[in-house]
Design brief:
Helices cover 11% and strands 43% of the residues. It is mainly beta and 402 residues long. Strands 3-4-5-8-9-12-13-14-15-16-17-18-19-20 form a 14-stranded antiparallel β-barrel. It has a two-stranded antiparallel ribbon with strand order 1-2. Strands 6-7 form a two-stranded antiparallel sheet. The protein starts with a helix and ends in a 10-residue tail after the last strand.
Length: 402
């Protein structure tokens, strides 16, 4: 599908070259002041699988599966099976009648021994075909913007209940295929942004009794070098470094029925952009903005817990919450539902999700669907079905062969 260059590139580069999206009111900072935190390559935060996506995007302590590299790499140490592979197809912007933007995910794991597991995953985001034109409407050729990230993971049990995971990731983001574009103050020649990042996770699971299980997880992801889409090193973009904490309660009601309840809390480990407050001059504001761009990755991750201009109340609004539930019948049929909440001043994504799963011997098929719950909630996956297919060469012991 061909689209007009100026419109598409304006949307793409809003997050990558201009830095942050500012919707603040300079008269003063209030509880309604919008101060979004934007990063380079936000696609790294999108749920890659229909399983967790059907439960409100929870996953840090969900049952270990092939998609654990995204949610909590430490879960691989407890995954059931010797080898598995899975893939997910996610249409993008279907509400806007865009037919060739898609997110693809491929993951695999291999158990080394009873304590250790290695895994690999690849995330690929295609923005389709774009017909480039300049301000005068002259053709500048066809572009195929895309982004991808590839990572490897090692997970190890520390004891019978606790595991540790570590991942390394290569990131490549090419939004303009080297086009020269306007960034608002002049013209710049763009380039693909590249980076290396690391993840570290902890996962703990233990039975409460013969019928109940409890699991807890902590996961830091995408901690790495900033992205630069041009030779201008003064406006490098933070990766979407992220902290996720959560838990899962599972009740094995009887031999045929099982239900789980999950909760995740999620926060970007990225500095909060400055705003103009009260009598502060714009020169002071731009000085603060320069300091923001010059903030190092580690320093930015630390100060992300206390640097919000609105103080503690704004810091709390930066926490996203996800709650979900999953029901399995004979480990064969699954039904899922969940809710995701983000403050209106930090992006306003609020939506319900639904999903189901079907497991047959070594195959599992999952589907999810997202429904926004507010009129201002904008999500590229609104009213979109995403599909996952997983192959595990060793099915759970209680999985029937129907």
């Amino acid at each position: 599908m061909k689209r007009h260059y100026l419109i598409i590139i304006s949307c793409l580069m809003a997050l990558s070259l201009s830095g942050t999206l500012f919707a603040q009111t300079p008269a003063g900072l209030t509880g309604q002041t919008k101060n979004y935190i934007s990063t380079g390559m936000p696609i790294l935060l999108i749920a890659p699988d229909a399983t967790s996506a059907g439960m409100g995007d929870v996953g840090v302590a969900s049952t270990p599966d092939i998609y654990s590299a995204h949610w909590n790499n430490a879960k691989f140490a407890f995954i059931d099976g010797n080898f598995g592979i899975g893939t997910t197809y996610t249409p993008w912007l279907r509400n806007l009648k865009v037919s060739d933007m898609n997110l693809l995910y491929l993951g695999a794991f291999k158990r080394i021994n009873n304590r250790s597991t290695v895994a690999f995953s690849l995330t690929y985001f295609s923005l389709g075909e774009i017909q480039g034109t300049d301000a005068q409407g002259q053709s500048r050729g066809t572009m195929n913007p895309n982004e991808f990230a590839a990572d490897v993971t090692y997970a190890m049990k520390l004891n019978e209940n606790l595991s540790l995971g570590a991942s390394g990731r290569y990131i490549h983001s090419d939004l303009t295929n080297g086009q020269t574009i306007s960034d608002g103050s002049g013209y710049v020649t763009t380039q693909p942004a590249k980076s290396l990042a690391a993840d570290i996770g902890l996962y703990w699971q233990s039975p409460i009794d013969n019928n109940q299980d409890l699991a807890l997880g902590a996961f830091i992801s995408n901690l790495g070098a900033k992205l630069s889409y041009s030779e201008d090193d003064t406006k490098k973009e933070f990766l979407p470094a992220n902290l996720r904490l959560g838990g899962r309660y599972t009740n094995h009601i009887d031999a045929s029925n099982e239900i789980s309840i999950l909760l995740d809390a999620n926060k970007l480990l990225v500095p909060t952009p400055p705003v103009t407050v009260g009598e502060e001059t714009y020169s002071d504001y731009y000085k603060n903005l320069t300091e923001y761009y010059n903030t190092g990755v580690i320093r930015g991750a630390v100060q992300s817990f206390f640097d919000a201009p609105g103080g503690l109340s704004e810091e709390l609004r930066e926490i996203q919450l996800s709650v979900g539930g999953e029901y399995w019948y004979k480990q064969t049929l699954a039904a899922r539902a969940g809710y995701f909440y983000e403050s209106a001043t930090k992006g306003g994504r609020q939506y319900l999700t639904f999903g189901f799963g079907l497991r047959y011997t070594i195959l599992q098929f999952d589907v999810s669907y997202l429904v926004p719950t507010t009129s201002f909630s904008s999500n590229p996956l609104s009213n979109t079905i995403r599909i996952s297919l997983t192959i595990n060469l060793k099915s759970p012991k209680n999985t029937p062969t129907i």
